[in-house]
Amino acid sequence: MSSRAKDLYLNLVKKAEKEIIIMFPTTDAFIRQKNMGVILFSEEAARERNVKVRILMPSHKSNEDIVRHLKENYAECINIRYIEKMSDTKATILVVDRKVSLVMELRDDSKRTFDEAIGLSTYSNSRPGVLSYVSIFENLWKQTELYERLKNQDIMQQEFINIAAHELRTPIQPIISLTEMLRSQIKDVKQQEMLEVTIRNAKRLQRLTNDILDVTKIEGRSLELNKEDFNLNDVVINAMHDITLGRDFLKNENIRLSYNPHRDILIQADKGRISQVVSNLLTNAVKFTAEGTILISVEKDKSSNNNNNKAIIVSVKDSGQGIDSSILPRLFTKFASKSYKGTGLGLFISKGIINAHGGKIWGENNPDGRGATFSFSLPLEENQ
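Now predict its structure.
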C-alpha cells in the first residue's frame, strides 16, 4: 500500500498543470519526501510548466538550505511558509490543480523512509472533499501571513522603542549634571527649590528610560550580565541607604527599615543588576507601607540541603496594604500595578534579572494579613 501511495504521490506532482499545495506535518516528513523526489518534481513543474507551488511546514534548521535554494531560484513560482508542528494533524496533505487530493497518514515519524513511516492513504477526486482540504490550507496560509505581519510589527515597535529610549537618555544626563551644578552656585532658596524640581523630574525620566531599555533587552533575550564576586550585605545596606534618602521615605516618619547582617555573604552575580532588584523591592515596600517596619533578610535556602543545589534567599517583608487580589495572578507581568505612581515595570524587570541568573522570584501576602513579602533566590557556586 505504501509503495502505491508513493507512486501516486509522485505521479500527481509530475502531472500538475496549474497548482500544487502541500502541507507537511513534521520536519522529518518533509525530509523523507524531499529525498524521494517530491521537491525535485515540484521544481520541474514550476520551471517547465509555470506551476504555482505552495508549501506549509514546520520550521527547522535542517531544512534551511533547501528552503533558501527554492526561494532564491523559484521565488515567482514556489512559496514556502512556516507553521507550528501539528500535534493533532499527523498527515501530509497534497492537493493538485484543486481537482484531486491525497492524504497520507503518518504512522511512525521516527522512520527514515517514506514506506516505513506512512500509514493509511486516502485519494479523492470528489470536488467537495478536495475543496475542503483547499479551505483548510488557505486558512492556515492566511494565518501565517498575519503572524508574519504581527511579528514584523513587533520587531519594528521594539526597534523604535529602543532607539527612542537611547535618544532620550543621551540629553538627560547633561541636563541633570548642569542643573545640579547651577543649583550649587545659586544662593536664592526659591530658585534652588525650582531647580530641585527640575532635577527630580529629570531623574524620573532617566529611570523610566532605563526601565524601557531593560524591558526591550529582557523581551529580546539580550540582557547581558557582568558577573563578579561581591558581598551581598554591601548591596543590601547601600540600597537601604539610597532608599532612606528618597522623598517617599523622608515624607513618612512612621516607616523603619530593619536589617541584621550576620556574616559576609559572598556571591558571584551582576552586582549592579542585583542592586537594582533589591532597590525595586524596597521602593515598592516603602510606596505601599503607611507605617511599621520593613524587614530585609538574607538566608540560605533551607530546602537546598544538597551541596550541589545551594541557594541564597533575599526577602523584603513590609507591613503595608498587601498585594491586591486582582494583581496577584499577573504580579510579575508588565504594568501590573494599581498604584498611580510608577509604571509597573519594576517587578517585570526584576524577574527578568533574577531569571537570567538562574534564580526565582515570588511574592505573597503575609499570613497575619498585614503587608506582603517579596523574595528572590540566587544559586550559589560550590565555593560560595
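The mean pLDDT is 86.
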